[in-house]
Amino acid sequence: MSGEMNLFDRDLVRQHRDRAARTFDAHDFLFREISERLLDRLDDVRRAFADVLDLGCRTGHLTRRVQERRGVERVAACDLSPAMVARAASQDDRATFLAMDEERLPFGEGRFDLVLSCLDLHWTNDLPGALVQIRRSLKPGGLFLGAMLGGESLKELYQAFLVAESEGNHGVSPRISPFTEVRAAGQLLQRAGFIEPVADCDTLTVTYADSQNLLTDLRGMGETNALHARRKNFTPRETFRRMGKIYEDRFQTTDGRLPATFQIVYLTGWVAETPEDGA
To answer: So where are the chain's domains?
Structure first.
């Protein structure tokens, strides 16, 4: 893998999820909400999907929900984290669960009718390559429906940390992932060989009593910093204190809450009924 694509420490992504697995259900509100929105979009599709893949299943909420859909016969669910997979499998004896790297799908071509992915692909180093693998794993006429964090996500937290670290003596550490923009996502779907590619977005704003509660939720989700370029030593306590004060000064609402923006980019793409030669 080229250095320019190696943005994320995938071992660290896995470790973050492994640590989050035990208490994930206390912090999974965003994953549950976006899972339901993906299923709402699926309800608009008038066809059955017998073989389904849940890519990045965490503790299996979307896996369990999609099995309730008429026509679904088999569901495979995978995650980078063995601990997440174990939690999911303990709650569901119908699906097949696999701990594996989503960047290297082990499935043969034309395996699934539907691939779902909820808030997982923003941690891939090679998003174009991941989309190609997803497209190849789908049968002719298959559907990919995914959601990932977009470029406006956590903009308040990013700004507060940027100012706080700029004022200190330790320099600024990269903290927020370079999330994909909507226009680029649509282009990537097309490049990966999907037909009728659609990328759109919406925004959720969650409010917190203070910035520490937001950071606790992000750790509980397994969504903390895994950039290779991050500072490897501990962030001084004073930086966190200063960040919290800046967050309050700049973004606190009239009722004393702190907003946290999550932009969700939705990806939809179909596989041609008759694959082109060489596809």
So the answer is: 3-157+177-206+263-270
Residue 50's CB: how many other CB atoms inside 10 A? 13
Of the candidates 253, 170, 260, 250, the residue with the CA atom closest to the CA atom of residue 212: 260
Q: Which residues pair with 171 in a beta bridge?
A: none
Q: What is the pLDDT of residues 197-254, one digit of tens each?
A: 999 999 999 999 999 999 999 999 999 988 876 666 667 888 899 999 999 999 999 9
| Of the candidates 268, 228, 231, the residue with the CA atom closest to the CA atom of residue 3 | 228
**Of 3.40.640.10, 2.60.40.10, 3.40.50.150, 3.30.70.920, which CATH number belongs to 3-157+177-206+263-270?**
3.40.50.150
The string of pLDDT tens digits covering residues 75-96 is 999 999 999 999 999 999 999 9
The predicted model scores a pTM of: 0.91
